[in-house]
Write a structure and sequence with these properties.
Blueprint (H helix, E strand, L loop, with lengths): L6 E3 L3 E5 L5 H11 L2 H7 L7 H18 L3 E6 L5 E8 L10 E6 L8 H17 L5 E4 L4 H9 L3 E8 L5 E7 L23
Antiparallel strand pairs: 1-2, 2-3, 3-4, 4-5, 6-8, 7-8
Helix pairs in contact: 1-3
Amino acid sequence: MSDPNFYFESERLRMSYWLASSDEHCAFLVKLFNEPHFIEGEGKTGVDTVEKAKTRLERFAEEHARNGYGSFLVSLKERGKHIGTVSLMRGKDSVITLPDVGFAIIEEETRKGYATEAGKATIEWVKRERGVEGVFGFCDPNNTKSRRAMEKVGLEFKGIKILYQLGGIEGCCYALPEMKDPKEYGVGIYPATKPSSA
C-alpha cells in the first residue's frame, strides 16, 4: 500500500511501507540491492537506477494490495535511518498458501541483531493483524548464514523440498514449529496441482 503514516515497531526498529513516490526510498533500495553482500546472498536484481527502483516499489505496493502484506522498509526507530527490508512474500499464482519471510540489512548495520528483530516483529505482526496462521522461510541448503537467520527468527527446519515456485530447485524449508507438514500448505506441490488444504 502507500499510506505514509503506516508502521509497526519492535524494540529498536520501525517497519513501514516502501513508497514508490519517495526519491529517498528509491535511492535506498538501489543502495541495498547493489551491496556486495546482498548480491552474494540474493543475486543481482537489476535494480540499479532510481527509475527501476520506483518500478520495483510499485510492485511491492501491488503485493500489499493483493495479500495484505509484502515488503517493508526497516528503519532505526530513534534515528530514522533506513537500514534494510523485511518481506512476507506469496506469489500471485502460488499454490503455497502461506507467505515466506526474508530480510536484508545494509552491510554497515549487520551483526547487530536487526535482521532477527525485524523478522520476528514482522511474523508477529502478520499473525496478529492479518490472521495469517503460519510463515515459511526458504533458502539454499549451502547458505549456512541464511539457515542460522531462519532459526534465529523462530523457524524450524522442515527438510529439503523441491521449490517449484522458485524454478524447481531444491531448498531448505523452515516454518513455525506449530505448523503442520509443509505439503499441506502447498510446499513441494507441483504448480498445476492444488494443495490438499485449498
